[in-house]
Every structure is written in C-alpha cells, then in structure tokens.
Amino acid sequence: MASSWLGYSVLFWFYPFVWLAILSVTQWQFIGTPRFNGLYNFIGVMQDELFWKSMLNVLRFLLYYIPIVLVASLLFAAGLKRIKYGKGFIALSFLLANVSSGVAYSIVFSKLFSEYGPINEFLREWLGFAIPWFTNPDCAMLSIALIVTWKFVGYYGLILYSGMMAIPKDIYSAAILDKTGRFKQLYAITLPMMNAQIIMVLVLAITVAFGIFTEPYLITGGGPLNSTTTPMVVMYEAAFQNMKPSWAATMSIIVAACSFALIWILRRMFEKNIEIV
Amino acid sequence: MKKFKPLSLLIHLAMLTLAITWLYPFIWMVVVSFKDTAQIYTTALFDGRFSLDNYAFLFDNSARADKPFLRTLFNSMFIAITITASVTLTSTLVGYAVAKIQFRGKSAFKNLLIVQMVFPVFMFIIPQFVLMRELGLINSYGAMILPFMMSAWGIFMVSQSFKGTPNDYIYAAKLDHASLWGILRHVMMPLNKSILAIVALFTFSSAWDNFLWPLIVMREAEKMPFSVLLATFSKSYGVYLGPVMAGAVVQTLPVVILFILFRKYFLQGMSLSLK
User: Fold this and answer.
1) Which intervals hold domain ABC transmembrane type-1 (chain A) (predicted)?
2) B115 and B33: one domain?
3) Same-domain status, B35 and B76
4) Range of the domain at B133
5) Of B17, B37, B59, at which residue does a domain stop?
6) Model's pTM, two decimal places?
7) CA-to-CA distance for A230 and A50, rounded, in angstroms?
C-alpha cells in the first residue's frame, strides 16, 4: 500500500522536482529541448527589479501581518478562555472565515472596501473622511494584510487557545502567592509557556505570506504601482504570460529558500523547549 | 468569583460583537445578492427590493454565451468530490500501512512524507504544468484531478490518528477473520471519524477553492471550475455587482454547509472541548 504512494510521488513529486532543477539552470520556452545556461537564470532573477519589489512587498506584508495577527489571535484566545456561554458559536464564526472560499471573499472585500462601498460610506458619515483602502500604494498592502488577518485569526487563535489551556493552574497560584502583577504574569508565565504554539503560528504565518496569490491577484491585480505584487503574482506572470518558465522556476527556488531561511532564523532565535513538570 | 461579574459580562459582549463583525462580510454578501445592482450602494443594508433576479441572471445561459455558470458549478462539484473521495480513501489505506504494518524502509518513508509536506506548493506549479503538458492533459479534467489524488498531509494526519488506536482491536478483528478492508471499514474508520472528517473537509475546501492551478491548466470556459469563471466574470463584468455577489454566495455555500455539518468532528479533531 505504501508503494502506491511511492509510485504516485515519483510521478507527481520527484519528476516535477527534477524538472524544477533542470529548468533552473537552463533556458526554455515551453518548446524544444532546454538549453544549458548555468547560473544565468539566477543572475537574471537577482538583477530583476520586480523580483526585489515583490520580496520587499512580502517583508512589508509580514511587518503588518505578524504583529496584527499575533496580537489579535492572542486576544481572541484570552477572550475565548473567559467565555462561558456561546463559546461554540463564537469559535465557529471566526473559523468560518478560515474555511470560506478565497475567490468569494476576495470579491466581497474588494466591493465592501471600494471607494463608495459601505465601509467608506460609514466612515464618511461618522468621521468625515474615507480611506483609499486599495487605491493608495501605502494603504493597499495593509488592507490585504487585514483581510488575511480576518481569515486566519480564528485558526491561529484556537491553536493558541489550546496552548493556553494546557498551562497548569498551579503556576499561576504560585505567582499570585508571590504577589506577581497581572502584566508580569503575562510575560513571565503565559507567553513563555505558550512558546511552542506561538512559534507554530509564526511559522504558519510566514508560509502564508510567501504563498499569497488569490487576494492580490483578484483585489488589486498587484497594483497600485506594484505595491501589492507578491512573488506568486510575479512568477505566474513570468511563466504563463511572458513565457519565461525557467526564469520563474529559478525564482520559485529562491523564494522557497528565503522562506526556509526566515523560518530557520525564527526558530533558532525564539524556540525554547518547555517542559511542564 | 462574584466581583468579576461585570468584567465577565463585558468580555462576553465584546466577543459576541467581534463574532458578528467577523460574520459581517458574509451577511452583507448574502443580503446584497438579493438586491438590484443599482440599489446595492445606495440603500441601507436591509432596505430596498429583494428578488431572485441575480441568481436567475447568473444561471440563465441564453442571455450571454460566455458565462456557463451552471456547467462550471457541476465541474467544480465533480472535481472536488472526486478528489475528496480519492484523498480520504488513499490516506486511510496508506495511513494504516504507516501506522500499523511493519515493512522495510518505514522510517525513511515517514521522513519522505514530512519532507514532501515541508516544500511549498508554489515550487511545483511550473514543473507540474510541464508534466501535465507532456501527459497531454492540458484543458482536461485529468489535469485538475490527478495531481491532487493523494496527499502527504492526509496520509500523515491519518497515520498519526491511527497510531492512537490500540492494536488489540485489530487483533480481535483478525481473530474474527476480518479482511483488511473489514478492519478498516469496521474498526479503524469508526474509531477515527474526526480525523477523517477533517482530512475530507480540508481537501474538499482546497479543491473547491483552488484558483491558481485551474487558471493555468484550463483554457475553455466550459471546463473551468466555478471559482475561476466567477473571478474572470467579476473582472470583466464588475458592474454587474448583484450577479457577482450571487456567484460569491454560490461559491461560498458548499464549504460552509459542510463545515456546519461537520463542526462537531472538526472541534474534536482540534482537541478542543468548547462546551
């Protein structure tokens, strides 16, 4: 039975993997035999302005996304912990955002936040100004980060919640005996004890950030002024509109390496082994 | 505990308000999908005339030829159901082998699974497209289905859960001359319902929602899944806001229904007891 999986992965995993490796060192345009050209693709990607722009955009996205989503899901977990009635309803409302279709919610959000959409009408009426959510280059990435936050808070929050529930109560009792303040309890007990879950959320968030495609492609199309062009959008356009698959394959390897490196650095710096005795 | 009452009430209120806020995009989408396009931005949420016109426009094929929404809806259904059935079945079989059967190279096999899960999907899009072209499957259902028939993640999840089932059940079933399929069907599957439900639900939702891959491998509107047609329709006919919203509702509905039906297993599988 396991061999059926081996057979399947030879066809759909190893074979593409080999192709990926070949493409990255050759010049090819979907026809004929690939022509070897060494590191030419690699240098080409490195010198490409759009590539650097998209990597910068991922960093900007992470800069908005990580703090917002982390704080929001911590608050969500902490709130959920204190809820007695309607826990199921609240958790499911947040999770619903997580399972809903990317195409559908991208369209809905692009209409909700459009220039004359309900959100801006509301702001205009009550606060006297509107926010150019997707049309201002400085704002657009933040708006996308907010939408992705909307999607993932429920999921990340439940991961953190399960970590929070696993902390033994005795530790808090001991801390209260020592007259430890609430904030001290938070950063000396709760956060360190949830290390494993927080790292997991961060790793998931980084993975999401590098693979994001549907939202920018549908909502902003990468604009305005390429401020929301993500590596996925660049790769898609390079491979299937500009017919440069080998260039895009090289880029995908570089992007994957970057995301691995970021995750590695994160784990190296923050991961601790917590044992509950 | 009595003095915390007001605070607890406040937290309940805040969390409930937030939950409604999180649901707001869904509520807006559903309500608006019943309104005339002209009224969407001009009337308050629950004002205006409600009708099924948008849905009729969406699925009425005679008006315009380049929006075969009904056809694509069936495409999506067919593709998502085939993939879900296949992934659930193969994950059960291979997961059982990994968890309960001894064979040579088992630890290497497990490492392979993990390695495969670690590599991001976007690395494989271009080479898999090349593979599909070599197999001559571009613009066919095969291209939409074959690469997703089995899943390392599904096998991993199922085998982790199967490991927790005591071997005694299997021995007992074997004493009763149960076949392999009998063991799976009557022992392993009922005991691991929640993980199978999660694997099936996530597989269905990602197959249903897959956007980039069909955008690449499908050429004809007739064979596209609903999501891609909806996205292209929304891009070129964005002014038909009402029908676009009706399409978004149709696109969202199946996964939401499944999610609500399976919510019990879902929360169990996340090892959460919420009540």
Assistant:
1) 55-266
2) no
3) no
4) 69-269
5) B59
6) 0.85
7) 9
Q: Which residues of B touch A207 (CB under 8 A)?
A: 120
Choose the closest CB to B234 out of A19, A107, A153. A107
8 Å CB contact of A108 and B245: yes
Whose tokens are 């033994």? That residue is A168
Minimum Cα–Cα distance from A159: chain B residue: B270
In chain A, where are the structural domains located?
49-100+139-270
Which residue in B196, B198, B206 sits closest to B267, CA to CA?
Answer: B198
- The owner of tokens 């608050």 is A75
Task: Say if residues A260 and A204 touch (Cβ distance below 8 Å).
Answer: no
Restricting to A residues 140-179, those with a Cβ less than 8 Å away from any Cβ of B are 150, 153-154, 158, 161-162
Is B115 found in the same domain as B16? no
A264 interfacial to chain B (CB closer than 8 Å): no
Q: Do B130 and A95 touch (CB under 8 A)?
A: no
Q: For testing the chain A interface, which of B72, B123, B268 should be mutated: the one with the most A CBs within 10 Å? A: B123
Q: Is B14 on the interface with A (CB under 8 A)?
A: yes
CATH architecture of A49-100+139-270: Orthogonal Bundle (1.10)
CA proximity to A54, closest of B213, B216, B122 = B122
Q: Are residues B240 and B122 in the same domain?
A: yes
Residue A209 burial by CB count (10 A; 0-12/13-18/19+): exposed, middle or buried? buried
Contact check, Cβ <8 Å, A94/B234: no
Residue where the block lists tokens 């597989």: B203
Q: Kindly report the nearest CA distance between residue A246 and chain B, in angstroms.
A: 9
ipTM of the complex model: 0.81
- Please indicate, yes or no, if residue B195 is contained in any of the structural domains: yes
